[in-house]
Structures are given as C-alpha cells and as structure tokens.
Design a protein that fits this description.
Family: Belongs to the globin family. Two-domain flavohemoproteins subfamily. In the C-terminal section; belongs to the flavoprotein pyridine nucleotide cytochrome reductase family.
Enzyme class: oxidoreductase
Distance between the termini: 37 Å
Largest sheet: 6 strands, antiparallel
Protein name: Flavohemoprotein
Strand order of the largest sheet: 4-3-6-1-2-5
Shape: globular
Cofactor: heme b; FAD
Radius of gyration: 22 Å
Order of helices and strands: HHHHHHHEEEEEHEEHEHEEHEHE
CATH architecture of the largest domain: Orthogonal Bundle
CATH class of the largest domain: Mainly Alpha
Number of strands: 12
Helix content: 40-55%
Keywords: Detoxification, FAD, Flavoprotein, Heme, Iron, Metal-binding, NAD, NADP, Oxidoreductase, Oxygen transport, Transport
Strand content: 15-25%
Number of domains: 3
C-alpha cells in the first residue's frame, strides 16, 4: 500500500504530466533503446517512429497518476495492456529496467522540478503498479499455457495457404509445425508474429487479428500490405509477408490474446462496422455469431476505398445469402468502374440513422480518423457508451477529436 504522503505527491504531478507526459515518454524510449538495444526485438519500431507508443505510454502514466489512490479503477486498462504484454512475451525482469529508465526520463525533462521527493514517490508508486502488471500477466501466461492446445512463449507455425483477398490484402492460413492441437480463442482476438526479415538487425513483432471464427485446425490472419506512401516507409512485416513469405514458410507465433472480444451472451441486435483492413476482427465476430446465435439480428457495414481494395466481399455476400438475419452494406469512398455499393463517400449520420437500431451492440475497427467519425455518429444517435466497443490496431489512442 502507498502512504498518504506518496499519494499526495503523485497527485500533485498530474498537471505536469498532462503538459509534459509525451516529452517524458519520448525521452524514456530514447534512453531505453540506447541502454538496452536488445529490447528493440520486442517493441514496434514503426510505432516509435510515428510517436504512437510514447503517446500511449504517456496516457497510461497519466491515468496511473490520476487514479493513484484507487488503482483498482485502472485494472481494466492493466488487463488490456497485459494482454499485449503477454503476446509480446514481456517478462517480470523487464519491469525494473523500465522503471529505472522512466525515472531518469522524468529527471531529464522536468529538471529541477523533479525533486528527490517526487522521484522517490514515483519510484514507490511504480513498484506497486509494476507488481499489479506482473501479477495480472502471470495469470495470463498460465492460462495461455494450460488450456487445450495452448503454449507459453513462441511456437512455430507454417503457412499452409496464402489467399489474395484484394489488390492490397492477403490471408495467411497458419498450422502448427509440430502437428499438434491449437488453442481456441474469442472472436476479435489476435495472434502475434515475430519475424526477422533478411537484412533486418532486430526481430519485428506484429499483432494480427484472427479473421475466421474459432474451431478450425488453423489460424487465419488477413494482412494489408503497407506500401511506402507520402514519406511514410513501407511496413516491414506486412511487405515481407506479402512479398517473401510462401506456403511452407515458418513463423514464430504467441498464443491468441486481446480484450476486444464479442459478447456472445448478449441477445441485442449486433452492428459490426469496419473500415479497410479493420474488417478482420469483424469477420471473425460475424462468422461466430451466425454459427452460435442464429436468431440474433446482425448488421455488417464495411467501408473501403473501392472494389479492388475490398477484401472478403464474396465471403460476406455468401454469408448474407445463407443467413436472412444478416443485413450487409458496402460503402466505397471512390468507386471504380463496375463497382456496386450501397453508398459512395463515407459512413455518415444519415446513413446510420437509416440502417441501424441505436439499441444494438456496436463493434467497430479501422483507421483512427474512421473510428473517430463512427464514434461521434454513435454518440449523435444516443447509443449508450456501454454498448460501444472498438479496437485500435497498434498502441491504444483516443477517439476524442
């Protein structure tokens, strides 16, 4: 337990963290990788370069400071982050390194304002928070290892099939190299791949949503090739998978993880909304609900740039033809010749008012600007917040404009 004095000191730093949080976490990552370059085998380099990871960590540190006197309030966040930590094989011995580096970054950015009292209070608080993470993650490792077909750490899978879904998206069907059973998962969860493309100094880890319902003898991931555009470099892992990984290629994989999962106990109408490759967890959810809740009304809305970039469209058409409780809508931003869709441009408030029941459960995923727009529209039609669920691809961000 933290002393009242420590709690008061941590609380007093909240305004400072609100202003300088991202500067502190940016300095943190710079120091971390300078002193411990081996950790570049774990962290997503692209998220560092784009500033997503420092921003996400700054939010987490800020939340911890705000709720330092009621840490139970951040347990849901701890569990969400813990899922990603378990998927990345973050271990207890990493936490002291992180704590030492975070305190050093605070001193560097805040200068004389980082008094010994403040640093000591944060050191004490970090120890308590780290223990919470380590405890939660220990349970997750245990659960992943002990369930049927489960495992701890990395397991080798091989590509059994490679299916082109659109001009930029390909599905990969993965089976265990050892021929054994594979762990089940909840619709919406992901697996994590660790690859080391030729000429790369470090391993690269990427989370990929499972894009099929559980119950198959394989895991299916559906990956968009992230090409270089507008000065942004190409995605290291996605381009390697598309251009170099073939049937028979072996991949290191951690067991399914993730907290963005479909509530299969709800009987409310279900609305699944996706943009681009954000459809991957949505397809898993859709297939699952059609199998296990055949009477539940489902609306599936997908937005893509155009028909040639629309993945799995034939699969969804086939599902809709077999399941009368499913209504499917397609929106193309810039349709190409011959494209057929229900709306051109973007999903907007008028479209949602015409197609969905505000009393439904809503799940959505896609690029952050897309999700911000959808989230705002759902607020406008007064969907209760506890019925709104979404997933960030990458570090958690915010949908506030």
């Amino acid at each position: 337990m933290l002393s009242q004095e420590t709690i008061q000191i941590i609380k007093s730093t909240v305004p400072v963290l609100e202003i300088h949080g991202t500067a502190i976490t940016s300095a943190f990552y710079k120091k971390l990788f300078h002193n411990h370059p081996e950790l570049l085998n774990i962290f997503n380099h692209a998220n560092q370069r784009e500033g997503k990871q420092p921003f996400a960590l700054a939010n987490a540190v800020y939340a911890a400071a705000v709720h330092i006197d009621q840490l139970e309030a951040i347990i849901p966040v701890v569990k969400q982050i813990g899922q990603k930590h378990r998927a990345l094989n973050i271990l207890p011995e990493h936490y002291p390194i992180v704590g030492e580096t975070l305190l050093a970054a605070m001193k560097e950015v805040l200068g004389d304002a980082a008094t010994p009292e403040i640093i000591n209070a944060w050191a004490e608080a970090y120890g308590v928070i780290a223990d919470a993470f380590i405890g939660v993650e220990a349970e997750m490792y245990e659960q992943a290892a002990n369930e049927p077909g489960g495992w701890r750490g990395y397991r080798n899978f091989v590509i059994d099939r490679k299916v082109e879904e659109s001009s930029v998206i390909t599905s990969f069907y993965l089976v265990p190299q050892d021929g054994g059973e594979i762990a089940s998962y909840q619709p919406g969860q992901y697996i994590t791949l660790r690859v080391k493309p030729e000429a790369e100094e470090f391993y690269h880890n990427r989370h990929y949503s499972l894009s099929a319902a559980p119950g198959h003898p394989y895991y299916r991931i559906t990956v968009k090739r992230e090409d270089a555009v507008d000065g942004k470099p190409a995605g290291v892992v996605s381009t390697w998978l598309h251009n170099h990984a073939e049937v028979g290629t072996a991949l290191e994989v951690t067991a399914p993880a993730g907290s963005f999962t479909l509530d299969m106990d709800s009987e409310q109408p279900l609305v699944l909304i996706s943009g681009g490759v954000g459809l991957t967890p949505m397809v898993s959810m859709l297939e699952s609900v059609l199998i296990h809740q055949p009477n539940r009304k489902v609306t599936f809305i997908h937005a893509a740039r155009c028909g040639s970039q629309h993945a799995m469209k034939h699969d969804i058409v086939e599902l809709a033809s077999k399941h009368p409780q499913l209504n499917s809508y397609v929106i193309y931003e810039i349709p190409e010749e011959g494209d057929q869709c229900h709306k051109t441009g973007y999903i907007d408030l008028e479209f949602l008012q015409q197609t969905v029941d505000p009393k439904s459960d809503f799940y959505f995923c896609g690029p952050v600007p897309f999700m911000r727009a959808v989230n705002q529209q759902l607020k406008s039609i007064e969907v209760p917040s506890d019925r709104v669920h979404y997933e960030f691809f990458g570090p958690a961000g915010t949908l506030d404009s």
